[in-house]
Amino acid sequence: MIDAGRVLGVAVEPQRFPEGTKTAADAAAAIGCEVGQIVKSLIFGVDGEVVLAYVSGRNQLDESKLAAAAGGSQCRRVDADTVREATGFPIGGVPPFPSATELRVFCDPDLLTYDEVWAAAGTWTDVFPITPGDLVRVTGAVVTDLRRDQGERSRLCSSAGRLRTMSSRGSGAVHGHGRERRGGARRAEACHHAHHHHPVAGRRLDRGRLG
Fold first, then answer.
1. Model confidence at 202, in pLDDT bands (50, 70, 90)?
2. By the number of CB atoms within 10 A of the CB, which of 27, 110, 183, 205 ranks highest?
């Protein structure tokens, strides 16, 4: 990617952190920068089209906003094989360039509030600095609001909390409802950890992976 950067007019100077930079919080701690300066490269499918979203490390992606920006209606996560096939890199290491396929790219405007941001450099342990202007320029990204609103996050967590409470009531539920309640408890627990630990923590592609 150093050669690709040179062709694009960007000096790429990767820095390696052996302890890993799998999440935005990990990367910010290792680099010594703000979490918001970390570029999360998120791969999603919108109505079957694979697209790439750059989101500030301090934000969570609103999938409905990404779908609307791409002119679609359904936005879904894609699996690790799809990420590698589309980009040529593994989850957690997707750099802004080069890409194995041509993808439409969308960028969180919050990244443009910094003089410098940090993106994955092809692996979970390598990152490099780039100006937001260059990031948008070389990738052809469309700058658009992608951030999940705090109110929406709170509403989702409140709903999940109610499901968790329901799951703890009574042991005489029929088997089918028991499965539903256990699923609600799992969703509530996931929301609990995302709220109390870090907004980008977790396995989901929209919660912390750099790429």
1. very low
2. 27
Q: Are 51 and 68 in contact (CB under 8 A)?
A: no
Residue 108: exposed, middle, or buried by beta-carbon count in 10 A (0-12, 13-18, 19+)? Answer: buried
**Domain count across the chain:** 2
- Whether 201 is covered by a domain: the verdict is no
Are 127 and 168 a contacting pair, CB within 8 Å?
A: no
pLDDT tens readout for residues 10-41: 999 999 998 878 789 989 999 999 999 999 99
Strand partners, 147: 61
137 & 154 share domain: no
| DSSP collapsed to 3 states, 45-77 | EECCEEEEEEEECCCCECHHHHHHHCCCCCEEE
CA dihedral 171, 177, 181, 187 (to 10 degrees): 160
- Indicate whether 210 belongs to any domain: no
Residue 37 domain-assigned (yes or no): yes
Beta-carbon contacts of residue 168 (< 8 Å; ≥ 6 apart): 185
